[in-house]
Amino acid sequence: MIRVLLAEDQAMVRGALSALLKLESDIDVIATAADGAEAWRLVQSNVPDVVVTDIEMPGLTGLELAQRIREHEIACKVVIVTTFARPGYLRRALEAGVVGYLLKDAPAEQLAEALRKVHRGGRVIDPQLAVDAWSEADPLNDRERQVLRLAGEGQSAGEIAQALHLSQGTVRNYLSEAIGKLGVGNRIEAYRLARQKGWL
Fold first, then answer.
1. Residue stretches of the chain with pLDDT short of 70
2. In which element (H, E) is residue 117 found?
3. Contacts of 124 (CB under 8 A, 6+ apart)
4. Dihedral sign (CA 151, 198, 112, 15)
5. pLDDT digits over 114-157, tens only?
6. What pLDDT does residue 104 have?
7. Which domains occur in the chain, in start order?
8. Can you give the residue ranges of the Response regulatory domain (predicted)?
9. Tell me, what DSSP letter sits at residue 190?
């Protein structure tokens, strides 16, 4: 039996995925989570065989959840199911140890098959995304990404500095570096481009 934890912030999608997986005789959905922080708590207490997670969730993103599972050496595999066909996301997912990356518009039976394959030790990656993922490198480092994400959410340099325990000057330097690397005119354009590419 494959023990699955499902993390998805949209209740309807979470319910539909859970119902579909429960139809499979060899898959047991042992828990569901509505955000990344709840998923992390459930991973630690239940240690599922496979975590199926969306990318964009409150608390922790699916990528941050995967990273945390890897850093803590928890013996479960991570499969991302998302609407975002962004090569940058796939690159970061693979770097975080994700072994499956599927798009939500894939046929439902593909998910169950993917879970069986990763449970056996394989990988399942959307083939077109895999090709696109290596065509353009992410120029941002982790700090630039954090600062740019918060700036794009409307936080001021002072608020970002406080949240990340940095000086305002350091925050401005990171923003300036990100803007320069992305070849745009300001932080809003930088945020938009980085999100479009899947680098945030």
1. 128, 130-136
2. helix 108-119
3. 79, 99, 100, 101, 102, 113, 114, 117, 118
4. positive
5. 999 999 999 998 776 766 666 667 789 989 999 999 999 899 99
6. 83
7. 2-133 (3.40.50.2300), 142-197 (1.10.10.10)
8. 3-119
9. H
What is the rounded distance in angstroms from the CA atom of residue 153 to the CA atom of residue 162? 15
Here the tokens at position 17 are 């995925």
Q: And the tokens for 125? A: 């990656």
Q: Which residue, 119, 123, 121, 124, is CA-closest to 1?
A: 119
Q: What is the pLDDT of residue 121?
A: 95
- What's the burial of 19, exposed, middle or buried (CB within 10 Å: 0-12/13-18/19+)? exposed
Tokens of 171: 């925050």
Q: Given this model, what pLDDT does residue 193 score?
A: 87
Distance CA 41, CA 65 (A): 10
Radius of gyration of the chain, Cα coordinates, nearest whole angstrom? 18
What distances in angstroms separate CA 111 from CA 53, 54, 114, 191, one per listed residue?
12, 13, 5, 32
Q: What is the separation of C-alpha 8 from the centre of its chain, rounded to a whole number of angstroms?
A: 11
- For the beta carbon of residue 122, count every other beta carbon within 10 angstroms: 12
DSSP 156: -
Residue where the block lists tokens 């932080």: 187
Task: Give me the residue label for tokens 């990763």.
Answer: 118
Structure tokens belonging to residue 30: 């042992």
- Angstrom CA distances, 96 to 69, 129, 188, stand at 9, 17, 27
C-alpha–C-alpha distance, residues 107 and 91, integer Å: 23
CB–CB of 39/51 below 8 Å? yes
pTM given for the model:
0.69
